[in-house]
Amino acid sequence: MHETNRTEISTLGEFGLIRHLTDTLQSVNASTRYSVGDDCAVLEYPAGKQILVTNDLLMEGIHFDLTYTPMKHLGYKSAMVNLSDVYAMNGMPKQLVVSLALSKRFCVEDMEDFYEGLKLACSAHGVDIVGGDTTSSLTGLAISITCIGEADKDKVVYRHGAKETDLICVSGNLGAAYMGLQLLEREKAVFNQQLRENKGGNPRFEEELSHAQPDFSGKEYLLERQLKPEARRDIIQSLAAENILPTSMIDISDGLSSEILHICSQSKVGCRIYEEHIPLDYQTAVMAEELNLNVTTCALNGGEDYELLFTVPITDHEKVSQMTDVKIIGHITQSSAGCMLICRDGNEFELKAQGWNPLKK
Amino acid sequence: MHETNRTEISTLGEFGLIRHLTDTLQSVNASTRYSVGDDCAVLEYPAGKQILVTNDLLMEGIHFDLTYTPMKHLGYKSAMVNLSDVYAMNGMPKQLVVSLALSKRFCVEDMEDFYEGLKLACSAHGVDIVGGDTTSSLTGLAISITCIGEADKDKVVYRHGAKETDLICVSGNLGAAYMGLQLLEREKAVFNQQLRENKGGNPRFEEELSHAQPDFSGKEYLLERQLKPEARRDIIQSLAAENILPTSMIDISDGLSSEILHICSQSKVGCRIYEEHIPLDYQTAVMAEELNLNVTTCALNGGEDYELLFTVPITDHEKVSQMTDVKIIGHITQSSAGCMLICRDGNEFELKAQGWNPLKK
Fold first, then answer.
1. Quick check: B325 and B235 in contact, CB under 8 A?
2. Beta sheet of B248-252, edge-to-edge order
3. Which of A221, A342, B222, B267 could form a disulfide linkage to B162, CB 3.0–4.6 angstroms apart?
4. Taking the model in full, what pTM does it have?
5. What is the ipTM for the molecules in this complex?
């Protein structure tokens, strides 16, 4: 956040700020007929396409912490979270409507940074920003993003289509974003502790501390997974190229456990997930060791991975095994067999949704 | 808000609460293909239709005050604000995606009340709730509503189409919602004052005060305009029935001045608005007198009317004059003539956007 060289938002006003942030936007999609500047955005999709709509509301202090999240990264991540929901339906995101509520703490430059991240994400995924509204908030920042996408009528993939014997697949690796969060939270605690210990002490120390950069070397990947997640457009494209239509799909935002339970309950099936097949990155394992955490627990319940979890018919086994960055981690069973984790030692446990649930905190 | 007989939201959890609020929803529109329960809602619109999308983010303490806004009314109004944006494009709203962020102050019963209002608005306007998300907030309530609607491809009306000699029309009457707000704010101030005067005093007085109902008799219309606004579906239907296609349109959320200036700047024209033709309700005039306010100023800058402001070719003069609840208040001029208010005494003033702008507060 900008502490000096601030341009107060009141100097532009609500409409001035929106114009300032959006007047260089250019649409790339034919389905975008009219963008920012009227009561609604106007879209037109070709016949045969179904339209996908999702919205996320992100609140400061709950979904993000600005003490360690740069505004540009926040803009990028806010977009990705929504794009990921459209990919999870086997669709392609096309438009974004962005509403922001901000307190007086924020200045024009903060919003420029936020939009820079937002635009970067949108241009990488071929998405148009078609609505941008700003208003004020008494405390903190609230971000509401609506994403609109398209899919061929017969290609939309729901959570409820998994069938017995289907293979359960996951993209990328799990638990790294959660480890990145632990790392950032640890550094924040250390920083606050040092500040407290120097209370009433040397003002120069405080000055130095505020410029101190914690040493994250060797852990860059974990930070990147937390601060700059990538929605898996590539996986949706690979599935199409391989002519694989998943029977069910969801993105992993609340942890593998929580998401596979959504698929199983909505599909009225059970599952067997094999611990040894859950994909982990080396840095995730090292960091779990360092923090004395069970790495499988982190992968199951960590959340914010934004990887895709999907099921395919067993007849697609060969095709799916050859896909880059996709692992088969288990299979679908009858509902009566329950949702089970098979551990490395052969023990079986019932999967529980301990996922990240801000309302239970 | 429910103070007693509260069911804490944590007893249901995030997913439980969403299910509880949305599991009785039934879709009425053919364009709604899949509603709440997956990563996205799935819609399908017929060829020849354009799709309208709008989002509003409403923040507690900025857009609404829960000391005098019942949750049911808040749900109703939150929907109306968005429906109004779709009508302002000459479209028909079809779907709503609702995201809520709530602090621990709120209980399940509060959310039930909110949804009751939301559903009432939706059923009156033939709209499906297709997405409902809840998350938590550190302070207060944030409401994000996205509305999706449709319009025939050649019937979408923008802000930028007004032409010289077009007639300027407005539905209903203006300034009443603002007067309702003044009334509620005045009663709140009186109540707080009485509480302060009794500080450390009689606990029974406090008890009585909390049940005291202020006397709003004769002013019900003003309160209704503030707490239960109605988006003007009927006007859009009348325009279609009369075969009138406005050249430009906008809904009045920030005050007549601000909105006509949007039309004029985007259409690159000027305007002449006649004070004597601005529609006012009797109660608005009485209340303005009581508060020593200029009623025209209130009508010009009050905001939250959710009436429609539109322009029609002068050839539609006869048709538009016969419309129920529509008044011609002026006409469009060349840009160089400016945007002018012609007062009852013949004086002319340039219109200024002093409208309700929360970022300038």
1. yes
2. B248-252, B307-312, B167-171, B326-333, B270-274, B339-342, B348-350
3. B267
4. 0.92
5. 0.91
